[in-house]
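Q: I'm writing up a methods section and want to include an example of the input and output format. Could you take the sequence below and give the corresponding predicted structure tokens, formatted cleanly so I can copy it straight into the document?
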Amino acid sequence: MNQSLNPAVSCRGLRKQYWMGGQPVHALRGVDLEIAERQMVLLSGPSGCGKTTLISIIAGVLDADDGDCQIRGRSWAAARPAERTRRRGVEIGFVFQSFQLIAALTAVENVSLPLLLNGAGRRDAEKRAAAMLHRVGLGDRLNNLPKQLSGGQQQRVAIARALVHDPQIIVCDEPTSALDAENGRLVMQLLRELVTSDGKTLIVVTHDSRVFGFADRIVTLNDGQIVADQVQTPVENPS
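A: Here is the clean output for your methods example:
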């Protein structure tokens, strides 16, 4: 495992249990995971193995039952609710599987939201949002509603929204699952660029083996445990 002295993410002994139909479901069973800064790590494994639970704990939107996760040396467990909310708004960008764009808002308005929630003025927020949309190749779609965009374009809006507040850590839940092969490749190239050019740390949940070549590491989960951790040299443009 490629570890750094100052990891971006350090999880120790994570356990999480849900109850379904009166029966316990063990989503995580003592997971240890360390991720260096400037890495793209893919989390793979069958449905229900704990991937989404793990990234939700890393992103600070879900509490572990036991264990702790530190983000850049600071524990989520020790953070009070207001501090947790503030840190998520500054340190973490989240790209959702189903885009989760607000249908009534334009692309630039959707991307502005994290900045507005962090207290920015509307004019400044929309200026920064427009610049980020230009970066992801949607400078000509600023005023389009989500229904006027293709799936690949909607995912790029979602990525721009996750990036606009300049977080160091970006968490993606199945970012290519709703895309065809070409759009999936373009999205992964964009995510890879964030690591190589911007020094971001990317954690990507995926079932899509076509995108494995973009990663520095592939961590495989099964039944709530890490069963493999493969370090590799990422390929520039996996086919």
